[in-house]
Amino acid sequence: MMAAGIFVFSAAALLQFFISYCRSLIAASAKQVLSPEVKDVTGIQRVASGEDFKRVMQLLQLCPECPEDRNSVQAIGTYFSLLNFVRFTVARLVPSARTWTESERGMCAYFAAVALERRISFSRDMLAQQMDG
Amino acid sequence: MPGPFEYILWFLCTPFEVAALVCAFKRKALRRYFFLNLYVAASLVASLGRFQILHHYGLNSSAYVYFYYYSDALLTICLYFALTSLYSYVFHELKAERYVSLVAFSLLVGTAIFSYSVVQQSSGKFATHFVVELSQNLYFVGLVLTYLLWASILKMRETRTRVIQLVLSLGVYFSLFAATYALRNLYPPMSSLLQALPPLIACFLPMAWAYAFWHLPEEARLVPARLAVVPR
Fold first, then answer.
1. Which residues of A touch B24 (CB under 8 A)?
2. Average pLDDT of A55-75?
């Protein structure tokens, strides 16, 4: 009985912490301005939409990973799946939830574009170091 | 001999621990977040020890299981102090560090006494049972304390992005562990299946901290109320 109680509390806390953590990652990246070339590549000019996410993630996978952002990209990918689940279940019944999930999905896509920008600059730095060496 | 899965398990986590320490060093956050980095360093040492035992005895050997749980208990205590240090950052302006330390220490002693009373009845391997019980209980106490810290951050409108991310990642970590242990107690037959989870979950914290140290400057700010699941 006690283990069941702990499990329910932990699962509820996990969901809450995970959503807040993902939103903190998104909020920190939302302040960064994308470079013109990343805007061209991703097609995101000012505001990203949820539909951009898959494409930006595919581009992201083409770039070499930097170890410190792997976790955050995976976390946002999971958060995006969670949002899709809400979009196809709760949001069909609650219109305000639909607007909220759409806006969150767009911010996930913007986060992925910022991560892409970082990976491109990381690859460039690595290449420059190899050329110097 | 351990198979590729066991080695992947080990290799997954250790580079992230190194990355977290390097990121903290490069961003001059080693001293500022001393207890957090101390935990990562201790975790790295434990990882090296675990690898030695894994290499010699294998994942299912009693030597690995003993070493894993004993080192895990020590690491949990270390992480508990890291959490206490985050409390000190958040309550710094209230000059409540002494009270925080006192309460944290009392809670640690209380958890140890509770764990002792639970395992007192067990017939053999008392120390091992105590270590496992203490570790499990500390994960739950850590989760409750992190939850209270997050509530305090929202209430006190703490805006330091790095501190917020460190606290939230700790919350995710503690809740994952607490849920896994609770699930193991609920369904003992699944225990062997769930045994592989803790080393995987352990990778999350150094990865999240490496990200926070590397990408977020100390002066970065955000409004914590916007992060809450229920809008405030």
1. none
2. 87
For residue range B193-215, list pLDDT tens digits in order.
777 788 788 889 999 999 999 99
pLDDT value for A1: 78
Answer whether A22's CB lies under 8 Å from A76's CB.
yes
Question: Are B150 and A72 within 8 A, CB to CB?
Answer: no
Parent domain of B38: 14-218
Percentages helix, strand, coil for chain B (3-state, rounded to 5) are: 80, 0, 20
d(CA A113, CA A47): 11
Instruction: Render pLDDT for B176-198 as a digit per residue (tens, 0 to 9).
Output: 999 998 898 888 888 777 777 88
Chain B interface residues (partner A, CB cutoff 8 A): 15-16, 19, 23, 140, 143, 146-147, 150, 161, 164-165, 168-169, 171-172, 174-176, 178-179, 181-183, 185-186, 203-204, 207-208, 210-211, 214-216, 220, 222, 226-229
Interface test with B, best of A24, A31, A101, A103 (most B CBs within 10 A): A24
- Look at residue B224 and tell me if it is in a domain: no
For chain B, how many structural domains are there in total?
1
* B225 found inside a domain: no
Rounded CA gap, B179 and A14, in Å?
9
The residue with greater pLDDT, B54 or B76, is B76
- Answer whether residue B231 is part of any domain: no
Residue type, B159: T
Interface predicted TM-score (ipTM) of this complex, two decimals: 0.89
Size of interface A-B (CB pairs under 8 A): 103
User: What pLDDT score does A112 carry?
Assistant: 95
pLDDT in tens, B94-134: 888 888 889 999 999 999 999 999 888 766 677 888 888 89
Provide the whole-model pTM. Answer: 0.90
Residue B165 lies in a domain: yes
Which residue, A61, A30, A60, A63, is CA-closest to A42? A60
Tell me which chain B residues have a C-beta less than 8 angstroms from the C-beta of A71. 16, 203-204, 207-208, 210-211
